[in-house]
Amino acid sequence: MSGVRKLVAKMIRTIKADFGDNPAFDLVVFSGDMISCGGQDKDDNCLFAVKDGFDGFKKEIIEPICAAFGLTQERFIVAIGNHDVDWAQASEDIKNEIKELNTDVKILPFYEKYIEHNNAPWITDYNEFRDRLYTPYNYECNGGYANLVIEINERKVGVSILNSAWGSLPKTKLVLLEQDQLADAYDALEDKGCDYKICVMHNPCQCFNEDEQGTIFDSLMAHYDVCFTGHTHQQKDYRISHGGDACYLSTAPKCRASVGDVTEHDVRYKDGFVVYEENEIQYIVTKYKYSNTREFVQEDRVETEKVTIQRNLLPIGALFDLRKELCIDKYLLLTNEALERVINELLEGKHQFIRLSALSGFGKTRLLYQAFSRIRENISAPDANVYYCETYPDDKKVFNEIKAIIENNHKGNGIIILD
Predict the structure, then answer these.
(1) Which among 178, 378, 380, 395 is most buried, taking Cβ atoms within 10 Å?
(2) Which whole-number Å values give the CA distances from 40 to 84, 123, 130, 166, 167, in the listed order?
(3) What percent of the chain is modeled with pLDDT above 90?
């Protein structure tokens, strides 16, 4: 364990040198692979008591880091990695069954039977370790996910720890999550009324099979503010967004139980860690790599401005301003009797539903703009209680926004335009 102690000590020393002796860190996230090899598999020349390995990780890593930064154990978030799974505890029949889990129709029944209900002995040691760490706190779990709710700076922060390693058989490329695990986790955080939500799992989204990838990306954008992952050993940060949803994704660099691999030819795989900060206007990621001097050095500091995300349903006034800024409507609409009749019918409000149909490019949106700009010119309220939405591939999100507008709108009658 001497290599681990040295690595942890160097990391703590580096952080304090750059951020002060008492940095105001909220959380420490370790995204999996606490041990080198779990259990004994007949295909691997490896023997390790998984439970002892987790206890050693707590003693040599969790406790010193929490002590150095004044954190309780609930502030040290640790997910399970594929190296933490004890496949010696899985029967050959189970392993063969996992190899056939190539569609969600097959994954869900297996997940519910074995993982969700704690009938998976190959991940039992991790689950018991996780429960010992977090049970004293505001914590709930099943055999798959675990949620923590932590009060940070007068905000209720929800953390979902997902298990993306339960199906990661050695010598295969299987990475399985099961979409219900993610859905159950964020639903539970929603019920807790969390202001800010964090997801932690071992595998980045691109590691999952095609059946799960799209749903995972959409769920992260819709329900989490940031997601921390690992596994690839390549540090990477980026923001995903669509419509009114966004999530910042951060993949950790390699940091193994050694004093740093200074001989690694590919610099992407050098030992390292990142410090992640977020405020109202930007994300700040400070990256550290283990150098040939056998010390951690700051490699880069990236500041990413937060882009204001437009919701799918915009007040019509905001749409006018946006189209004006983009010079979309710089030409007048040449009207005639027929067009005037359509515009008047739109504005009179005699019908609850109006469908305006024409071939693409005939000017339906331009006509709507022309009609409702007249309302804006004649009243003081810039949105005129009119909302506009361009076509969106996920109908459910549009319906949810319409529902929110109706429930929170006390201005009386209004108009919603679905283009």
Answers:
(1) 178
(2) 12, 14, 21, 16, 17
(3) 39
Within a 13 Å sphere around the CA of 254, how many CA atoms are in the beta-carbon half? 19
- As given in the structure block, the two tokens for residue 255 are 């940091």
pLDDT band at 137 (very low <50, low <70, confident <90, very high): very high
Tell me how far CA of residue 62 lies from CA of 56, 139, 180, 230, 371, in angstroms. 9, 18, 30, 18, 63
> Structure tokens of 31?
């995204």
Residue 96 CA to chain centroid, in angstroms?
A: 31
What does the alpha-carbon distance between residue 104 and residue 209 come to, in Å, rounded to a whole number?
10
CB 247 within 8 A of CB 234: no
Alpha-helix runs per DSSP H in 135-232: 179-192, 210-223
- pLDDT surpassing 80 at residue 284: yes
Q: Are the CB atoms for 70 and 27 separated by under 8 Å?
A: no
Query: Mapping DSSP to helix (H, G, I), strand (E, B) and coil, where does residue 121 land?
Result: helix
Q: Which two tokens stand for residue 217?
A: 């990306």
Contacts of 214 (CB under 8 A, 6+ apart): none
Judged by DSSP in three states, 373 sits in: helix
Residue 333, CA distances (Å) to 40, 274, 343, 346, 366 in order: 75, 54, 12, 16, 8
pLDDT value at residue 368:
75
User: The tokens 């000017």 sit on which residue?
Assistant: 363
**Are residues 290 and 296 in contact, defined by beta-carbon separation less than 8 angstroms?**
yes
State the pLDDT at residue 89.
Answer: 93
- Beta-bridged to residue 302, according to DSSP, are 285
**Both tokens of residue 133?**
């760490």
How does 21-33 read in b/e, with b if 16+ C-beta sit within 10 Å? eeeebbbbbbbbb
Torsion angle in degrees (nearest 10) through CA of 396, 399, 401, 407: -130
Residue 100's alpha-carbon distances to 183, 206, 314, 357, in angstroms, are 23, 20, 46, 48
- Per-residue model confidence as pLDDT tens digits over 186-224: 999 999 999 899 999 999 988 887 778 778 888 888 899
pTM for this model (two decimals): 0.71
* Model pLDDT for residues 74-133, shown as the tens digit of each residue: 999 999 999 999 998 999 999 999 999 877 788 999 999 999 999 999 999 999 999 999
Residue 364 — φ and ψ, nearest 5°?
A: -65, -50
